[in-house]
Write a structure and sequence with these properties.
Elements (H helix, E strand, L loop, with lengths): L4 H21 L5 H10 L1 E6 L3 E6 L4 E14 L2 E13 L4 E7 L16 E6 L8 E9 L4 E8 L4 E3 L11 E10 L1
Antiparallel strand pairs: 1-3, 2-5, 3-4, 4-10, 5-8, 6-7, 6-10, 7-8, 8-9
Helix pairs in contact: 1-2
Length: 180
């Protein structure tokens, strides 16, 4: 397994939770048989380098005071963790925020492979009115994950450059999954 302790803790918890839930719901399945399947089908584990860009990068420059990310691939399922602080600096960047550097190309099913809640904040994060949570929208083209926000009204939209002002310290923390 990867040396990322946060990822190892998440994966152990994920496997144990999935084992218990699946064993309960599946006729004939036992906790040990599901855990054995997962253990025998881990195809790779390691680290990845998340990078921030915008739909139109313009003169975007991004510094990363801290960045740590890991992955585990079980068959086609890719499980990611990321803890990243970044500072975008720009005058001409525009459009949606895109997280790149994914370790595997997502399967593009209607633009989404999976959505998951993430924490996005910073000293100057500008949430829209009625902000509820952020999600990742994984795509094969362009390769990466758009950061999406959801409102308490149920509506959602892509995060744009206006939520990440130039020169502000921002943070993305998430555990996510998608299918490759």
């Amino acid at each position: 397994m990867a040396t990322n302790n946060g990822l190892n803790t998440f994966i152990t918890s994920f496997i144990n939770d999935a084992t218990m839930a699946t064993a309960s719901a599946t006729s004939g399945a036992t906790s040990s048989s599901i855990k054995s399947y997962v253990d025998n089908n881990i195809s790779s584990a390691g680290t990845w380098t998340p990078t921030i860009t915008f739909q139109t990068p313009g003169n975007l420059s991004v510094s990363y005071p801290s960045r740590s990310a890991g992955y585990l691939k079980i068959g086609r399922l890719v499980i990611l963790t990321c803890q990243m602080t970044f500072v975008p600096t720009y005058t001409t960047a525009s459009g949606y925020l895109l997280l790149t550097g994914l370790p595997f190309t997502p399967t593009n099913i209607g633009g989404n492979s999976a959505l998951t809640g993430i924490n996005s904040n910073g000293t100057a994060f500008v949430p829209p009115t009625n902000f509820l949570l952020n999600e990742l929208n994984f795509n094969a083209a362009p390769l990466g994950a758009w950061v999406v926000y959801q409102l308490t009204t149920g509506a959602s939209n892509f995060c744009t450059v206006t939520q990440y002002p130039s020169g502000s310290t921002q943070q993305l923390l998430f555990t996510a999954y998608y299918f490759a």
